[in-house]
Design goal:
It contains 4 helices and no strands. By secondary structure, the chain is mostly helical. Helix 2 runs antiparallel to helix 3 and helix 3 runs antiparallel to helix 4. The protein is globular and about 40 Å long. The two termini are about 20 Å apart.
Length: about 100
């Protein structure tokens, strides 16, 4: 299992946890959809190409923004941990798609 697949699967599990815990449910649904697309692409089940816009940037922002908002609003320990994981995965993917040096 590569790092990309591990991050995608962990983001999927964390965004599902956010969705079912009820913390900012519409934004958690966006993160769940984005992480589901990431997992499908990581396993080779889906291939998406968008002209002019890096798909990694779009999906990364779709994970980072809801994760950050959920992290700021969450009160329980599992929700905070799940939101932090989603936000970290989204920020990391956004930086990688922008070719930032880490």
């Amino acid at each position: 299992m590569t790092l990309h697949v591990a991050l995608a699967v962990s983001a999927l599990a964390a965004s599902a946890m956010l969705f079912f815990s009820g913390v900012v449910r519409p934004l958690a649904a966006v993160a769940l959809l984005a992480s589901g697309l990431e997992v499908a692409m990581a396993f080779g089940l889906l291939r998406l190409h968008v002209a002019g816009v890096p798909l990694g940037l779009v999906l990364g922002l779709c994970l980072a923004v809801p994760g950050l908002v959920a992290w700021l609003r969450a009160a329980s320990k599992p929700a905070v941990s799940a939101a932090a994981l989603v936000a970290f995965t989204g920020v990391l993917q956004t930086l990688v798609s922008l070719n930032a040096r880490l």
